[in-house]
Automatic annotation (TrEMBL):
Keywords assigned by UniProt, alphabetized: Membrane, Transmembrane, Transmembrane helix
Membrane topology: Multi-pass membrane protein
Protein name: Transmembrane protein 267
Location in the cell: Membrane
């Protein structure tokens, strides 16, 4: 009996060591060369997109400016989520597109609050619409996590709260350049400096990855993908 226990313990030690090694590799790969280059590309995209949006031609056409500005929100979110999870399977592309869609859909609350489809009314609201309250970002993400736990959804859905976080946070940070962050019930923050916005946007995927690692979500996603995530 003692020999069997000793043999079992000797097997458990290498297994535990292998698991810890895989976790360490997953964390290191969060800052791999490919992911850092992708983040640099994301920062460059922000600079290029804002340069295009500031052109006199686009500024003179309200609808065009609004559509392009909203599209930039979507591209930043899908690019950020692609950095977080990598693109290995067809389902990854669906997740990336979902992140972009959610980031763009946030602006629909402008029309909801205006009670009209008029772009002029949506852009001239007396106060900021509800989904632009930055306090809601952690509340919504945590609520989604609790709902998933209550419904006992499969581990394949475990990344959904983090996807929502990337979509909401990237949108709010970009809007913060003009309006600051609305931290209800506290006061608004001052407008975020432009270069701070670019820096935060480029590093947000890595922050998200580290938080996912610390909460064990990356381990579940690695199991779903069959390998440690390499972004």
């Amino acid at each position: 009996m003692r020999g069997l226990r000793s043999r079992t313990d000797s097997i458990a030690v290498p297994l535990n060591s292998a698991v810890e090694t895989e976790k360490a590799q997953a964390l290191l790969q969060t800052f791999s060369t490919a992911s850092l280059l992708a983040s640099a590309g994301l920062g460059a995209f922000c600079l290029l997109a804002d340069a295009v949006l500031s052109s006199s031609f686009i500024q003179q056409h309200t609808w065009l400016r609004a559509v392009l500005d909203n599209s930039v929100h979507g591209v930043i979110a899908l690019w950020s989520w692609a950095i977080v999870i990598g693109l290995r399977k067809k389902s990854d592309f669906y997740e990336v597109l979902l992140a972009g869609f959610l980031a763009s859909a946030i602006d629909l609350d402008h029309f909801y609050m205006a009670g009209s489809l008029s772009l002029k009314a949506a852009l001239n609201l007396p106060r900021r619409p509800p989904l632009h309250c930055s306090t809601l970002v952690p509340v919504l993400c945590f609520s989604l996590r609790l709902l998933m736990w209550a419904c006992r959804l499969k581990d394949s859905w475990c990344s959904l709260p983090w996807l929502l976080f990337i979509s909401l946070a990237s949108h709010h940070i970009r809007d913060g350049v003009r309006h600051g962050l609305w931290l209800w019930p506290f006061a608004n923050t001052p407008p975020i400096s432009y270069w701070l916005y670019v820096t935060i946007t480029a590093t947000l995927p890595h922050l998200c990855s580290v938080l996912m690692y610390l909460t064990g979500t990356r381990d579940m996603i690695s199991t779903k993908h069959g390998v440690a995530i390499d972004v």
